[in-house]
What we know:
The chain is an alpha/beta fold. Helices cover 33% and strands 17% of the residues. The protein has a 9-stranded mixed beta sheet with strand order 3-2-4-5-1-6-7-8-9, with helices on both faces.
Amino acid sequence: IPMGLPFGYQEMDKYLLLKEGEFYATLSHSHTGKTTLNLWLIFLSAYKYDWGWVIYTGENRTASVKMRIIEFYLGENIKKIDEFQFQTALKWINERFFFVNNDNMHEYTDLLKYAEKVSKYHSIKGLFIDPVNALKRNDKVNRYDYDMAMYTDMLLFTKRTNISIFLSLHTRTQSQRERDKDGNQLMPFPADADGGAILYNKVDIFVTMNRNIQDRERFMFTEIYVNKMRNKETGGDVTPKGSAIILRFDWQVQFVDEYNKLPITRKKLVQPEIQYTPATEEEIQEDLGGIPF
């Protein structure tokens, strides 16, 4: 059984690792950055370990997701990069990430089938579903039975194909209303997810995260808790109470840890120089002699 792979952060790597064939769930309130955080971890898996991914983002346009990953790859805002950098990054992305068309809603079974189909032709290690709340549901089946079947199928899919699933979820409305004395939303618990108990039982790794978006001093800091780690023998563990993993969104293009460490060293892109050899006087005269006027 292979050990989990480190993302490259000193504190995170004690608790949260990248594992093949594992079912991950990330729960957070709306608009707190769970898509961006998940995309960053997905980017790290591709950059450090060459993982390929199938990506479904039901609430974000594919173009905007690609632009975000381009910024991750280059470490620059999309408005500051040149055409050569853009095309180089886009080529890298298109070789590793395969996006599900989100013009229409899909059932979870559509995504599992598509990921398995793509994996026959490309090296796919992960499937990102963001968020599960955006998936189409079968109204003929009651919610409990549907959630039980969906999460069971997802778990079985990861074990059968060895493709990991990153699943993101919004919290329930009641959880989003709860605030601390300063008006900030509280860190959610696994039970704050729709189908929380079912999902918690099925996933291998359950993560909750929060970011106080209205706090002017702390809005760029994301707090992460690992609430469940099923297979501790391959690395990772639950985070102690009150000891969140903290990452800071740096310059809107990368996450650094509390020690200001970035887990990658980006390769410098250098545009190939055009090789030009000046023509000799004899070659110029010969060319001129062939002009019919």
